[in-house]
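Good day; I would like, with your permission, to put a structural problem before you. What I wish to show you is a protein chain and, alongside it, a tokenised description of its three-dimensional fold. I would ask you to consider whether the tokens describe a fold that such a sequence might reasonably adopt. You will find the record immediately after this paragraph:
***
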Amino acid sequence: MQIRTYCVRPAAYQEYDPALASVAQSVIDLIRRQDDRLAVEHIGSSAVPGCGGKGYIDLLLTYPPGLLDAAKHALEALGFQRQQFGVPFPEDRPMRVGAVEDGGREFPVHVHVIADSSTEATDLLRFRDRLRADETLRLAYAAEKRRIIGTGVTESPNYALAKTDFIRKVLSNA
């Protein structure tokens, strides 16, 4: 598997695609082989069976204290690129992007690089797990995503921002 150049696309709602999970696992394995000190988890809608979304693969890469640069270097060595769209995440909490091909299809990948002690990392995993465990919540989240896109919000950073209140509400009720 090779990491390709990332192309920015407008956000568009897609029904859940089971191929996303297997492709995500292949990318996770690739990153772990690059540096086994890093932990990588599949997060976001594509990590939740039955939950539609943008069809992007979101990964959470967590690193132990002192290994932020090692994490960034590992991703760079694989071909991941710095975020060049929207307002890029800061370099002390970066996001790297790329694309992979599988079965003749291209899958965009976002890798969120976060300290393993961060509450943000914990929250991302808690949100994913809540969606996996609660079908009603999963359906409500998918409906919220369709609503947001239906209002014309299709630029990725604005789309992510528009979901923030829903996500905060879910986490505050956990």
